[in-house]
């Protein structure tokens, strides 16, 4: 079934708005946090390690990563987005880390912008994730459209992002989520690449993760609260007072990232798990890994650096890797697996 094309200009304009608002407006969570600040590592003053021997590499969905990092899904569909995605892809290739792109709905509606997502030539050896809103399965999208966006990216997996709050506030948002789990199940059974279920900053609970996994989803990206509030982003784009107020009322809605990681890992010990939502540096990444995540995704830090320059992106990843390595060194752990099993991460005692 072919997707409607009459909304393509609106979708493309929304992509440009999102980049501008994220970079220029205060759209971060103000009260709700990622929950990672509630944890601290126990310092080891005698690690009995040579820092140069520390290994922060890992495997995710069968592919080797030099560091447990994901450049989280952000953008596509505009000239600026093409530049951002190319820069991100180059740094992902250089450091052998994973990368996702923003929603590719615009590439289906407007095929002439598909090349803004076509980054495989810049990242031939990188774990790449295609991306589509799960709710689009209720709006004329199906297997053909998913195969198309996977093909555009030459992707290794498909992210289905789930964003009910954002759609409630977004002008002309798609809010029919009825029967979506069955359609996700059907899609997972028919695709030959893994499907990753991802929120957009409000978190996935253990109960919902269990349903998604039963439906055939391979991996979960918790995308918890504490970072960019997409309710606030859409409030900035509001076309009327109702939308503006809704965005502000629900600006701090969601499940903290740390809570999502621990609760999902408790019910699904072996599920490939991505931690994202409010992670801002390598210490956050290390905490997320210690809590049970396999890899960690960051968006805002990468967006800010990508807009600045390619050099800024290389510097960012270099710093992230140094921060993660320092955590391992100063907790006496030589590998990420050692870190997860060391008991080095403690929940802070709050008086």
Describe the structure.
Helices cover 42% and strands 13% of the residues. By secondary structure, it is of the alpha/beta class. It has a single domain, classed as Aldolase class I (TIM Barrel). Strand 10, helix 11 and strand 11 (295-298) form a beta-alpha-beta unit. Helix 2 (79-95) packs parallel to helix 13. It is globular and about 60 Å long. The model is unreliable at 1-5 (pLDDT under 50).
Topology overview:
Blueprint: H1 8-24, E1 39-41, E2 58-60, E3 63-65, E4 69-71, H2 79-95, E5 98-100, H3 105-109, E6 128-133, H4 143-153, E7 157-161, H5 164-169, H6 180-190, E8 195-198, H7 206-214, E9 219-221, H8 230-236, H9 241-249, H10 257-267, E10 273-276, H11 282-291, E11 295-298, H12 300-308, H13 310-331, H14 336-340, E12 345-347
Question: Could you tell me the radius of gyration in angstroms?
Answer: 19 Å
Counted up, domains total 1
Structural class of the secondary structure composition? alpha/beta
Number of strands: 12
Largest sheet: 8 strands, parallel, barrel
N/C terminus separation = 58 Å
What is the CATH C-level name? Alpha Beta
Number of helices: 14
Summarize the amount of helix as a percent range: 40-55%
Low-pLDDT runs: 1-5
The H-and-E topology, N to C, reads as: HEEEEHEHEHEHHEHEHHHEHEHHHE
Major β-sheet strand ordering: 4-5-6-7-8-9-10-11
CATH hierarchy: architecture: Alpha-Beta Barrel
Return the CATH topology.
TIM Barrel
Mean pLDDT: 95
Oligomer: single chain
Shape: globular
Q: Give me the CATH superfamily.
A: Aldolase class I
GO molecular function, one term: oxidoreductase activity
GO biological process, one term: isoprenoid biosynthetic process
Family: Belongs to the IPP isomerase type 2 family.
Catalytic activity: isopentenyl diphosphate = dimethylallyl diphosphate
